[in-house]
Amino acid sequence: MFNKKFLIVFGVTSLVALAVLFLIGLSEDDTPALPPPSPVKKISVYVSGQVKNISVVELEDTGDLRFVDAVNKAGGLTEFADTEAVNLAETLSDGQHIHIPTKEIFLQQNIAAQSSSDLVNINTADAERLATLKGIGLALAQRIIDYREQNGAFKSIDEIKNVRGIGEKKFAAFKDKITI
Fold it and tell me: Second label for 93, Cα 20 to 30 Å away, from 32, 80, 141, 142?
């Protein structure tokens, strides 16, 4: 009889344990796990030439990226950009180099101005070019550039006399060699 009671208790306990395990198994989410979202694919494009920020830009690859997207990410075009020379609607790919050239007319004007004239443009010349003027050394050339940066472009060649160190005598020595 002891064995019979033991077997009954053991059987009932086992059935209860199995039922609990079965219920626990049913309560778990049996839906298959979703794969983790794929990382966002990015591409890098080098943008140079007549853009505001020459740089390597990184863009999310949406599958329909265009040159214009990379140019905009690089700050947009400068006023000298030749948009006729580049197809801004062309599609992009990773590692591509986009170069926005300068307008041909602007280049030709600059080349013509530099080659056909010995005049120094006091609004655009660098320190070395300014130092070619009689009586102007590198230090005074830098003061001219500093004046230009603080006050804007010279409106007349006479305005250069406002730069500390340039008086009537010095001005007279180079006034026929400068332009604005």
Answer: 80
- Look at residue 116 in the predicted model and tell me its pLDDT: 47
Amino acid at 14: S
User: Per-residue DSSP letters for the chain?
Assistant: -HHHHHHHHHHHHHHHHHHHHHHHHHHS--SPPPPPPPPPPEEEEEEEESBSS-EEEEEE--S--BHHHHHHHTT-B-TTB-TTSS-TTSBP-TT-EEEEPBPHHHHHHHHHHHHS---EETTT--HHHHTTSTT--HHHHHHHHHHHHHH-S-SSGGGGGGSTT--HHHHHHHGGGEE-
Average pLDDT over residues 99-113: 69
- Write the secondary structure of 32-46 as one string of H (helix), E (strand) and C (coil): CCCCCCCCCCEEEEE
pLDDT, position 112: 56
Tens digit of each residue's pLDDT (9 = 90 or more) over 140-179: 888 999 898 888 888 988 999 999 998 899 898 888 899 8
Angle at 175 between CA 170 and CA 180, to 5 degrees: 125
Burial level of 71, CB count in 10 A (0-12/13-18/19+)? Answer: buried
- Cα distances (Å, whole numbers) of residue 129 to 32, 133, 177: 74, 8, 12
